[in-house]
Write a structure and sequence with these properties.
CATH class: Alpha Beta
CATH topology: Beta-Lactamase
Radius of gyration: 21 Å
Number of domains: 1
Largest sheet: 4 strands, antiparallel
Structural class: alpha+beta
Strand content: 15-25%
Distance between the termini: 62 Å
Mean pLDDT: 90
Length: 164
């Protein structure tokens, strides 16, 4: 009788474990090592251009993972770079989208909570999902965005641990 009861409990636990497993999912995240590679690629591009910028890498919730402020970069660019990255992460699109909306007359975009509607924030995409973003601030809007795209472009390799 105890043996039958034990088997029944084991079957019940196994069945419930399948239900729990079906209700959970896995999520890719940006490790510090990957964030360092992403930022290093952006930094190399900035130095190649002679740009003085802040580079911010955030997770999918817009929380800072890594910040680099290149020599002689204005202090004000720190918060702006973080804001651009956060915007790209939480809204899952480049921060330029919001700047363009405002330029085109949709000033309501200024009221979006957590949005920094300035060009230079780019989502980091892995396996088709936004898992974070990079924000660059300090030079012209186009240059900031170009540098951010260089960092975002190495994300897939950095996240897979491949050599860059």
């Amino acid at each position: 009788m105890n043996r039958i009861r034990t088997i029944a409990v084991a079957l019940l636990l196994a069945a419930s474990a399948g239900v729990v497993a079906a209700q959970t999912s896995t999520k890719n995240v940006i490790s510090l090592a990957a964030a360092e590679k992403i930022a290093a690629a952006a930094e190399a591009e900035a130095k190649k251009r002679g740009a003085t910028v802040v580079i911010a890498v955030v997770d999918d919730g817009g929380h800072l993972i890594l910040l680099k402020r290149l020599d002689d970069t204005q202090v004000a660019s720190v918060e702006v770079g973080i804001g651009k990255a956060r915007t790209a992460a939480i809204f899952r699109r480049p921060s330029k989208v919001f700047e363009d909306q405002i330029k085109n007359g949709r000033v309501a975009s200024l009221a979006l909570p957590g949005a920094t509607p300035l060009q230079g924030g780019v989502p980091i995409i892995f396996d088709g999902k936004v898992i974070g973003a990079i924000g660059v601030s300090g030079n012209t809007p186009q240059e900031d965005e170009d540098i951010a795209y260089v960092g975002a472009a190495v994300a897939e390799k950095a996240l897979k641990g491949e050599k860059l």
